[in-house]
Amino acid sequence: MAARNLTIQLDEDLIREAKVLAAEQGMSVSAMVSRDLRDKLSARAWTERARRAAIESMAEAADSGRAAPQWRRDELYPRR
Question: The whole model's pTM is what?
C-alpha cells in the first residue's frame, strides 16, 4: 500500500519529546507513530475477535439444551 502524508498539530514540547523518543529507538517520528497505530489497531482487532468468540461460545452453551446445574448448599459445603 502506498504511503500518504498526514498533517497533525502537536504542542512543541510533545514534538520535541517524540523526536527524542524516536531517535532513541532508531526511527523517525513518522515510523514510530505508524508502528504504534498498527499495534493499537491489531490489539483492537484481536479484542474484537475474542469478544465474538466468547459471544458465540455463550450462545452455543445456551442452545445446548442442558439445564443449568442445581446444587444444594450441603452438597457444596459439607458440615463438620
Answer: 0.65
